[in-house]
Sequence to fold (512 residues):
Amino acid sequence: MKKQGGGVVGKLLTAVLLIAAAAFLGLLYYTDVIPRLYMILVAAGLLLLVVIVGILTWNYRKKVRFLFGVILWIILLGALLLGCLYVYRTKLTLSEVTNVNTEISQVGVYVRADDAAAGLSDTAGYTYGVLESLDQENTRAALQMVNEELGTQIQTREYAGLGDLVDGLTKGETGAILLNAAYIDILRDMDDYLNIDTMITQVDVKNVESDLVLASSVPEPAKEEAAQSEEKTEEEPETVNAVAVEKPSQDHVYTVFISGIDNRGGIVARSRSDVNIILTANLDTKQLLLVSTPRDYFVPLSISNGVPDKLTHAGIYGISVCMDTMEMLYDIELDYYVRMNFGGFVNIIDALGGITVVSDYDFNSANVVGYHFNKGENYLNGDQALVFARERYAFSEGDRQRGRNQMAVIRGVLEKLASMDLLANYSTILASLQGSFETNIGYEEIARILQQELQDVSAWNVVSYSVDGTGDTQKPYSMGQKAYVMVPDMSTVEHAKELMAKVRNGETISAQ
Fold:
């Protein structure tokens, strides 16, 4: 009877461990990240450990062996339960930040700073100023929300530009204005409205949600104009441009738009895109190219009917306009986007425990006092990396160097993600992704990429390149006055196209 009792204890412990192992394997299989061969090896290893625990705990009379078996049982059970938690959280987090196909425009109701109105209801009876042509879709949607909430049909007055709209309010022509909150940053860059925050006050905001329309959303007139600007004669031989416009058939090549938005408050709202990087990756050849485009690049937006604007303003009209505009510039098709806000940028790097970035120069930040960076390697926390990535005033090349620094930061993040430090900070990293990072890449696609990476852990060849241009003063589409812009140097754009084509075609690239 005593031997039988000992066997019962061993069976119970073994059964519990077997259930935990099965649960862990089930969750691991559910993530669809681990290759089949690895799953078989993990299952075999766990089964072996369960059998060992069963043998050690089969007879509790052999106290030393039994005690060792119990200790092993506790360690394995704890590891399996922790593994289940991590795997579940990984699946949940990736599901939340992937396959995002909606975005929000925050349209504010603004009154004069000295107006006594404290909320939307106080503006009933006001005449509202609205933009005549810019951001019409969001304006109409927000106007409908205001009418429904106030239970009336408010009177509106249209203005041609941002400055006219604000002037109409401050002069008393209107009592309130409806304006996409993302335009406030543009007003801050205009000479007459540097103090816009002291001129007007937001009393309400309407969140206008819209579905993302990608891939074929460039209006036909814009496509035709872009095509005409780089039209080739029939006698000319096939060029890289002809290759670049073809949709890659290989499922191992990815072309992704990386956008860093100037919005510390959250990831959901449309905002200026201050980081504009195209990532081209070939999983088979392990080639990864980062091409940075300066935020002030003076190019037609996909919705501006050929009128040039600063590239950063494309973000005001949504991630799809950013992508369509980049497609027009580089004659490519972008598969996916990744968007991150500056607040999330800090959180993710801190969660990684800091990153190492290589600086081209020894410099003090002219944008934020108290930060110094050495030429060569610098180990940076989130705040330091943000200052490094945003700095432009310390460099003679300004925004060009900022783009290079942004790519240096991305390289640092990629290198840290490939290190063992990822495991040590895994839980914190997962938490940092939520609310600060989003992409339209589906979970299944990410799982497929991770599977391929686990099967081939060889090092990547990461190359960075920044297109160039010439500073000028022009009137952008989204602004009512002239401002600094960068006129593209098309030779650098052509070189970027060549590098992208090489990656897609499986060639090895270099920084030269």
